[in-house]
Amino acid sequence: MASRTHVFYVGVTNDIVRRVREHKQGTFEGFTSRYNIDRLVWYEVWPYVRTAIAREKQIKPWRREKKIRLIESLNPTWQDLSEDWGKPIQPLRRDPQIPPLGLKSSVGMTVWNGAETEKLKDGS
After folding, report:
1. How far apart are CA 120 and CA 115, in angstroms?
2. What pTM did the predictor assign?
3. How many CB atoms lie within 10 A of CB 20?
4. What is the CATH number of the domain that holds 1?
5. Which of 10, 42, 45, 93 to pair with 74, CA 20 to 30 A apart?
6. CB 114 within 8 A of CB 75
7. At residue 11, what are phi and psi to the nearest 5 degrees?
């Protein structure tokens, strides 16, 4: 997360949509609300909470310049990656000049949350 003036916040969450909304609404007092940190400019997805926390601990002590390089490697304009969340999705229009693929089975995407598997492995 970052402010318009590029003040950073690095954190871990199990619900990025909720957490970004909380930052945007200033739900909690403290560093992020004081510095108006309400823009999602970079994120990573990890299947296990321990891995996510380890990555957070790795990034937090980095110098500012290194964090900027990380953000700009994927988001050079510092666009708020969450700005279109919750808006209606416009259907894609197929170019009539390009024939359809003719797939014989349906194509989809499955989202898997590894945190539940980790919880079971831990026995907790």
Report:
1. 9
2. 0.67
3. 20
4. 3.40.1440
5. 93
6. no
7. -155, 175
Mean pLDDT of the chain: 78
Cα–Cα distance between 6 and 41 in angstroms, integer? 10
| pLDDT digit string, tens, across residues 44-99 | 998 899 999 999 999 999 999 999 999 999 899 999 999 888 777 666 565 666 55
Contact assessment for residue 19 and residue 11, using Cβ atoms and an 8 Å cutoff:
yes
Q: Which residue has the tokens 């403290």?
A: 30
Range of the domain at 71: 1-84+110-124
The encoded tokens of residue 43 equal 């994120």
Tell me how many domains the chain contains: 1
Count of CB atoms within 10 A of residue 21's CB? 15
Q: Is residue 46 part of a domain?
A: yes
**Contact indicator for 108, 42 with CB cutoff of 8 Å:** no
Name residue 43's amino acid.
Answer: Y
**23: enclosing H helix or E strand:** helix 16-25
